[in-house]
Design brief:
76 residues, mainly alpha, 3 helices, 0% strand
Length: 76
C-alpha cells in the first residue's frame, strides 16, 4: 500500500507502524492506536530520508487505517 512516502522502503516502514497501531487499537482502543502511530511517525521523520512521514497526507492515510469506529483527535 502507498502511504505517500517518497520511497517503497518508506511506505513499508509506515505500513509496519500502521499495522502495529491497528493491533494496539484492537486491544487498547483506537485513540491509543492512533497515539502510538502518531508518535512513531514523528520518530521516523527524524531519520534521514523519511521526513515526509509527518506530512498531512501520510498521517491522514494512517489515521484512516486505524480509526474506524469513532473519531479521535487527529492533532495530538
Amino acid at each position: 500500500m502507498s502511504y505517500g512516502m517518497f520511497t517503497q522502503e518508506g511506505n513499508e516502514l509506515v505500513e509496519r507502524i500502521t499495522q502495529a497501531g491497528i493491533k494496539l487499537a484492537q486491544t487498547d482502543g483506537e485513540r491509543a492506536g492512533w497515539a502510538f502511530a502518531h508518535r512513531k511517525l514523528h520518530e521516523l521523520a527524524r531519520a534521514e530520508g523519511y521526513g515526509e512521514s509527518t506530512d498531512t497526507m501520510v498521517r491522514e492515510i494512517v489515521y484512516g487505517d486505524i480509526v474506524k469506529k469513532e473519531p479521535v483527535e487527529f492533532y495530538i
